[in-house]
Amino acid sequence: MTIFGRSKGFMGGIMVVDLSAHTIERQTVSPKVYRTFLSGMGLAAHVLYHRIPEGADPLGPDNMLGFVSGLLTGTGSLFTGRWMVTAKSPLTGGWGEANCGGQFSPAIKRCGVDGIFFAGTSPKPVYLYVDDTTAQLRDAGGIWGMDTVETETFLIAQHPGARVACIGPAGERLSLMAGVSTDQGRMAARSGLGAVMGAKRLKAVVLAGKKRIPVHNKEAMKNISRVCNKWVQFQPPFLPGFLTGPVGALLRIMPWAITQDGLLYKILLKKWGTVSMNQMSVEMGDAPVQNWKGSNRNWGFFKSLSANPDRLTKKEIRKYHCYSCPLGCGGICRTNGKYAHTHKPEYETVLSFGGFVLNRDVDTIFAVNETLNRAGMDTISAGHAVAFAMECFEKKIITRKDTAGMALEWGNPDAVTWLVAQMVNRQGIGHILADGVARAAARLDNGAKKFAFHAGGQELAMHDGRNDPGFVLHYSVEPAPGRHTNGAWLYYEMYQLWKKVNTAPRMPLVYAKARRYETGPDKAAIGSANSRFLNVLNGCGVCQFGAFLGIHRIRIFDWLNAATGWHMTPDEYMDAGTRIQTLKQAFNIKHGIQPKNCIVKGRPAGDPPMNHGANKGRRVDIDTLAADYWAAFGWDRKTGHPSEQQIAAVTAIS
Amino acid sequence: MSFFITTDCTGCTACKAICPTHAIVGKKKHRHRIEDKACINCGACGRVCPAIAVANPFGTIVTKIPRKEWLRPLFDLGLCMACHICIETCPVNALDAALQTVQDLHPYPMLARENDCMACGFCAAECPVDAVTLEKRQG
Fold first, then answer.
1. Residue A222 C-alpha, separation from nearest chain B C-alpha, in angstroms
2. Domain B1-65 class, CATH top level
3. 3-state helix, strand, coil in chain B (%, to 5)
4. For chain A, where do the domains classified as CATH 1.10.569.10 start and end?
5. Stretch A574-595: mean pLDDT
6. I need a surface site. Which of A21, A528, A554, A634 has the fewest CB within 10 A?
């Protein structure tokens, strides 16, 4: 096995698997690339920009699919168990990325590489098996058709101790909502990358390497981790779950906003997980309701009470945590159905199949969550597709003839379950919906486009830009649009970057809510700082929930220097984030994506403004926000294109 | 700086036999020597030396301890994040990971080969969240 130089923190190379030629090659990556783009998503952007030819079919052999780990993964740092899947997205036609936890991230590095990239298309189903001595493509004919849990269980029985990432039937059937699953239901769900894996006939990646991950200064790593862990373990008693709704209502009523400290969010996450935000988000206007046309008035306190965090966590048997996570926001729950246990549905899933379709039945949400996890399908996109279908049914664009008699009425749990099954199996109306709302609207026509809300083809997440315009900005301008993890004003407040990064603007302790809707250089600086920092996080494999602790509590930049032996300043790391962002934007330009076409229009941007509820009368000047954001990167204000010199500077690195 | 062997050494080879990195050289019945470059400061040599002839890097003589009294790692699974750094860091590969309850999705670390453990404490020292402590062997 190749040992790549004397790198610290990173392994120094990648594995390239050609599925057409059935060849596997380990390739060295220059340390300069790591210093310029870090590892993880930055490394993937560097590899994919150069290796995916212009105009490549996302589901064809020219597309390349990458599984990458983070620079800090396995170095003794905390919250660094994220791995990422990247490719040209079949959903958006541009840069595609999805991010996931579990135990798969260190498994990549323990195989001696920072990323595994797949080119070509296999003529028959295969899976990749890698350990310390072998790397082989093996026949997956016997497991093709199995769901994600069955696949993983089967492969771990074959290869004890291995970690598995796989697709389910959704990916095999090339649904553009398909994701890649690990740990029996953790999903790298977005951008439709499961379909890329399915098109390549790659069922799974099985990693059983035992290589050590080199670290420059272990003692410094531990000292920084110890401080971080003290903050994580700080857990005072908190309100009961049913009071989270009234807290949200209070936040809604207040005319001013307090800059959020992520420590509070950490307390919520540790107690309940992401479902802690269910009712609070609805009440304060953060959660979209009824396909973006409703509000907390349609989905009031007593209706959303069924999804209050105490009720959901009542089914929790035990906490679930990802690799190197001392927090454990996940949970394993018992179910009433045929399966012994299931992952606790996340906030996005509960809201997608709760308030977004006006469904009060929590058991349906648990069942749909497990169905989609097993099928390997994105719950955010699937929830949008269900809501879209329900609104089309309401407007008579879809009729009972199309649904075999099923009434797709708002809040009908049977309709939700039925539609999800149809999408997973690609039957009837589900066949149209399984490729996302943008394509479904185009196929249905008849005015359906007005009810399909997406950014560049990707469905938006369960955070309302009318409450926090940062969400709608980042849905619109990011190279992988429509993702809630990209950024928001709230995220910036919690990162508290100004405590370490000189160029990051400081937030006041208290400010008038109206200031959120202002545009200008300050907002552009906040937006660009969000994107740049997220690129650093994704380069390092850091979980965003960890980063919400605040940069002075989770000292990522210090960890980076201790792990690698570099002596870079926080601002220099943020510059790496800028380079990654430019490279991803250049990827989109290369593949014919016009950034301005991804700008979110209609209801999610407050057009027309709502006449009731928490976001009444709010409108986001998204065109100005986007132009300012692009200008903050030095890109063209009108088109969002980086200059030729900027592109040349990031593409010349090798 | 590493451990070193004093003139009291009788050349019994006990330290040489237990050293996990083969850092100790010397002929039988002659004074042994620890090679700085190879020594990982686990201290096992001192704990087995019947002549009490091993000093730690600070010059303090290490006392011989009967092997059954050596401390063993104890894992607090409430704190453990299953990062497996303890397993990676163990110089004698005494730790392993296993599913410890039916609902576990992660294999958690455990002392799989107790007789191999040298009580070096590296697992406890490296654990990022202090979930490993060294305790006396039970029973």
1. 5
2. alpha beta
3. 20, 20, 60
4. 272-452
5. 98
6. A21
Query: Percent of chain B, pLDDT > 90?
Result: 67
In this structure, of A355-369, A422-436, A593-607, B85-99, the range with the lowest mean pLDDT score is B85-99
Q: So what's the pLDDT on residue A2? A: 40
- CB of B47 within 8 A of CB of B5? no
Is B82 in contact with A321 (Cβ distance < 8 A)?
yes
Instruction: Check CB contact of A229 with chain B, cutoff 8 Å.
Output: yes
CA-based nearest residue in chain A for residue B130: A226
For the entire predicted model, the pTM comes to: 0.93
User: Closest partner residue to A323 among B82, B88, B101, by Cβ?
Assistant: B82
A491-541 residue pLDDT tens:
999 999 999 999 999 999 999 999 999 999 999 999 999 999 999 999 999
**Nearest residue of B to residue A78, measured between CA atoms:** B128
Rounded to the nearest angstrom, the minimum Cα separation between A542 and chain B is 14
A326 near B CB under 8 A:
yes
Which tens digit of pLDDT belongs to each residue from A279-300? 999 999 999 999 999 999 999 9
For B105, the closest of A77, A183, A212 (CB atoms) is A183
For residues A529 and A493, give the distance between their C-alpha atoms in angstroms, rounded to a whole number.
11
Q: Give dist(CA B113, CA B105) in Å, integer.
A: 23
What is the CATH topology of the domain spanning A272-452? 1.10.569
- Tokens coding A606: 């407050």
Instruction: State mean pLDDT over A610-629.
Output: 96
Domain B70-136 has CATH 3.30.70.20: yes
- What is the C-alpha to C-alpha distance for residues A77 and A554, in angstroms, rounded to an integer? 9
Q: Which candidate, A104, A85, A108, places its Cα nearest to that of A95?
A: A85
CATH classification (class only), A469-651? mainly alpha
Q: How far is A378 from chain B (nearest CA, A)?
A: 21
> How large is the ipTM?
0.75
Question: Where does chain A hold its CATH 3.60.9.10 domain(s)?
Answer: 13-207
Sort out which chain A residues have CB atoms less than 8 A from B84's CB and list them.
106
- Per-residue pLDDT averaged across A194-219, rounded? 95
| Contact by Cβ (8 Å): A139, A158 | no
Q: Which of A324, A344, A543 should one mutate to test binding to chain B, selecting the residue with the greatest count of B CBs within 10 A?
A: A324
- A514 Cβ partners below 8 Å, 6+ apart? none
Task: Give the minimum alpha-carbon distance from A210 to chain B in angstroms, rounded to a whole number.
Answer: 8
Selecting from A78, A317, A321 the residue whose C-beta is nearest the C-beta of B103 gives A317
Q: What whole-number distance in Å separates Cα of residue A119 and Cα of residue A650?
A: 23
A1: pLDDT strictly greater than 60: no
Quick one: fold of A13-207? Aldehyde Ferredoxin Oxidoreductase;  A, domain 1 (3.60.9)
- B108 → chain A, closest CA residue: A323
Query: Which residues lie closer than 8 Å to A25 by C-beta, 6 or more apart?
Result: A15, A16, A17, A18
pLDDT-wise least confident of A20-34, A351-365, A476-490, B104-118: B104-118
The answer to whether the B1-65 and B70-136 domains have the same CATH topology is: yes
Q: Any idea where the domains of chain B sit in the sequence?
A: 1-65, 70-136
pLDDT over 60 (residue A3): no
Exposure string (b/e) for A163-201, b if CB count within 10 Å is 16 or more? bbbbbbbbbbbbbbbbbbbbbbbbbbbbbbbbbbbbbbb
Which residues of B sit within 8 Å Cβ distance of A?
79, 81-85, 88, 97, 101, 103, 105-107, 125-126, 128-130
Q: Which residues of A touch B88 (CB under 8 A)?
A: 74, 212-213
What letter does residue A192 receive in the DSSP assignment?
Answer: G
Give B98's contacts in chain A (Cβ within 8 Å): none
What are phi and psi for residue A257, nearest 5 degrees?
-120, 145
